[in-house]
């Protein structure tokens, strides 16, 4: 019996850094987007740690490490929740959503938990497709 086979423990904010989240997002997104199509900016100061993933059409913002909160922003966010998916789809492909989900799995769900914490209905609609 091979005893070297171990299940990796899921990561959480206690052992995932903001830099690791940024790296996971970059790794996943560069498979589906040209590197010129997105930017990942890490902001670290004495009183704030934040991460932005930005394209011309959408931005994911995460802040408050190690207890992160995040949101998805687009230019024309609808008020009507029945339009959330169509509005998101107009700026974010299924492939990008799958890449974000892959990055989320790579960091043990830290991304989806941060986005859920916002309570923003538009952002929560994205979380549903990530998990």
What can you see in these coordinates?
With 131 residues, the protein is of the alpha+beta class. Helices cover 42% and strands 18% of the residues. The chain is built from 5 helices and 4 strands, in the order αββββαααα. A 4-stranded antiparallel beta sheet has the order 1-2-3-4. Helix 1 packs antiparallel against helix 3 (94-106) and helix 4 (110-118) runs antiparallel to helix 5. The longest helix is centred in the N-terminal third of the chain and has 15 residues, at 18-32. The protein is globular, with a radius of gyration of 15 Å.
What Rg is obtained from the alpha carbons, in whole angstroms?
15 Å
Strand content: 15-25%
Strands side by side in the biggest sheet? 1-2-3-4
Residue-averaged pLDDT:
88
Structural class: alpha+beta
Q: Which stretches are low in confidence, meaning pLDDT under 50 for 5 or more residues running?
A: 1-12
Helix residue percentage: 40-55%
Overall shape: it is globular
Question: How far from one another are the termini?
Answer: 34 Å
Q: Write the H/E string, N to C.
A: HEEEEHHHH
What is the overall number of helices?
Answer: 5
Q: In this structure, how is the largest beta sheet organized?
A: 4 strands, antiparallel
Count of DSSP E strands?
4
How would you summarize what this structure contains?
This protein is α+β, with helices and mostly antiparallel strands and 131 residues long. Helices cover 42% and strands 18% of the residues.
What is the topology?
Elements: H1 18-32, E1 39-44, E2 49-54, E3 58-63, E4 69-74, H2 84-91, H3 94-106, H4 110-118, H5 121-130
Antiparallel strand pairs: 1-2, 2-3, 3-4
């Amino acid at each position: 019996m091979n005893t070297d086979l171990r299940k990796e423990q899921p990561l959480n904010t206690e052992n995932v850094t903001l830099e690791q989240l940024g790296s996971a997002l970059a790794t996943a997104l560069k498979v589906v987007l040209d590197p010129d199509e997105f930017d990942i900016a890490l902001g670290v100061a004495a009183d704030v740690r934040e991460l932005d993933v930005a394209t011309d059409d959408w931005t994911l913002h995460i802040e408050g490490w190690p207890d992160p909160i995040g949101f998805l922003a687009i230019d024309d966010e609808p008020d009507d929740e029945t339009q959330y998916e169509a509005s998101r789809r107009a700026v974010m492909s299924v492939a990008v959503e799958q890449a974000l989900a892959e990055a989320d799995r790579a960091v043990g769900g830290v991304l989806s938990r941060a986005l859920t914490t916002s309570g923003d209905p538009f952002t929560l609609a994205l979380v549903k497709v990530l998990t």
